Amino acid sequence: MSKKFYVTTPIYYVNGVPHIGTATTTLIADAVIRFHRLRGEDCFFLTGTDEHAQKVADAAAAAGQSPQEFVDNISLRFAETWNYLNISYDQFIRTSDERHKFVVAEVFRQLQATGDVYKGV
Q1: Which of 14, 29, 38, 112 is the most buried (most CB within 10 A)?
Q2: Nearest to 42 by CA among 77, 80, 92, 6
Q3: In whole angstroms, what is the distance from residue 33 CA to residue 116 CA?
Q4: pLDDT in tens, 71-81
Q5: What are the respective helix, strand and coil percentages of the chain, to the nearest 5?
Q6: What is the CATH architecture of 4-113?
Q7: pLDDT tens readout for residues 57-97
Q8: pTM above 0.90, yes or no
Q9: How far is CA 4 from the centre of its chain?
C-alpha cells in the first residue's frame, strides 16, 4: 500500500489581503510538495481561506460590505495571488464552501456519537 504525501498551508483568515508572511508560508509548502512530486510520490497539496472569525466580520463592516461579499473578494485575492506565484496546489478550500460545511458537520456528529464531544460545565 502506497502512502500519500500530504501538505497543507494554514487556511488563511480573510480579514486582509495576502501579504509576505502568507506568501512565504505558501511558497515553502509549494517547494516541499514539488520536491516530493519529483521523487514520484503520490501527493496532495491543500490551501485555502478561513472565512469565519470575528476579525473577518469586523473587517467587512469597516469596508462597508456584507461579510459574504467581503470574504468572496478577499478569498479571490488569495487564489489569484497563488496562481500568480504559480503555486501548485491541488485544492483551494474555503470554509464557506458547502462541501467543507458538510464534512465539518459530519465529523462533529461522529465525535458526539463516540462521546468525544459532549455538553458540560
Answers
A1: 14
A2: 6
A3: 33
A4: 999 999 999 99
A5: 50, 20, 30
A6: 3-Layer(aba) Sandwich (3.40)
A7: 999 999 999 999 999 999 999 999 999 999 999 999 999 99
A8: no
A9: 19
